[in-house]
Amino acid sequence: MIKNGRKDELKLLYKCFVREDTNLSKIIHCLNEYIEEKGKSIVTDEKLQAEPENFSQKLLDFKAEIDDLIIHSFSSNLRFEKGRDTSFQQFMNINANTPVYIATYTDKEMRQGIQGLSNEQIDERLTAIVRLFCCFSGRDLYVKKYQDYLSVRLLNKTMISTEAEEMMISKLKMELGINAVNKMT
After folding, report:
1. Of 3, 9, 14, 62, which is the most exposed, with the fewest CB atoms less than 10 Å away?
2. 81 pLDDT above the threshold of 90
3. CATH number for the domain running over 96-185
4. CB of 181 closer than 8 Å to CB of 169
């Protein structure tokens, strides 16, 4: 059911077993296995590794798919959310270049991807990137690459929106703490 995206059936299954901890643990385990299996196939795909933007977009799409599944089928149950986060951390750290790829994707979004979008749409995209950022251990590498790209955007005046840049920095401040991000600004 998980592999086929049968959200309504999963919702019924969840409602039946929500009170029985043993069965709920089995469902969480199955979901975690699915996340790790599919995620590992994304981060180890050589074709995607050759194209950082596609690599990152696949990860963002997969994260959105799983988030939607947990909201719709499992009523945003905290145990499912913790399992999702742990599973994402497991597979995202397999590829040491994941932080660099996501920073490259962020740079592309800041130069081209957010053009013509409303502030709400920009916020959604940046939030999705930061949620993905939370799942890997190479945060310092991401911040370094993001800082390099930010510098280039500022020097070459290729950024589309100062507000979007400030929004991204404030999101990073919330995740990393003010001291870590103040070095960038």
Report:
1. 3
2. yes
3. 1.20.1310.10
4. yes
